[in-house]
Design brief:
This is SRPBCC family protein. By secondary structure, this protein is α+β, with helices and mostly antiparallel strands. The protein contains three helices and seven strands; from the N terminus they run βααββββββα.
């Protein structure tokens, strides 16, 4: 299984960082110009971006990538998977949160990926790693 990992320290409390990264709309800022839109709410009305929610990603009206939140442990961990994608056999995103003090939080973002074409996985992961590093740097400045 191919995977990649990005670690980033944010200058804010674990509660603030978790709240930021648990919202689908945040990824519009992090991964601009890619657009992210929630298309299905979770069953929890207080956390519409929680377990079971689905987001679409892409550009303009073309948003072919769909991700579903499969685990959400407040201030600890978020997991999601790509759904209904014929090019991807396996995709698991894991975002972990660790408090490093009152105003410091370490975020560890891991992605496991297996594309249908074996050589493609490493290319996709390399691009994702670069995008996540840049996106996290942008988000850290907003806190």
């Amino acid at each position: 299984m191919n995977s990649m990992q990005v670690k980033k320290e944010f200058p804010a409390s674990i509660e603030q960082v978790f709240e930021l990264l648990s919202k689908h709309a945040t990824y519009n800022v992090a991964f601009s110009p890619i657009q992210v839109e929630r298309i299905k709410d979770s069953a929890d009305p207080e956390r519409p971006d929680g377990i079971g929610s689905v987001r679409r990603m892409g550009f303009g009206p073309v948003k072919p990538l769909k991700e579903q939140i499969t685990l959400l442990e407040p201030n600890q961990r978020i997991e999601y998977k790509i759904i209904k994608n014929p090019l991807i056999k396996h995709h698991l995103g894991i975002i972990e949160f660790e408090s490093k003090g009152a105003d410091k939080t370490l975020v560890t973002y891991t992605i496991e990926l297996q594309a249908r074409a074996p050589f493609v996985s490493k290319l996709i992961l390399a691009q994702l790693k670069t995008a996540i590093k840049l996106g996290f740097a942008k988000l850290a400045k907003t806190l």
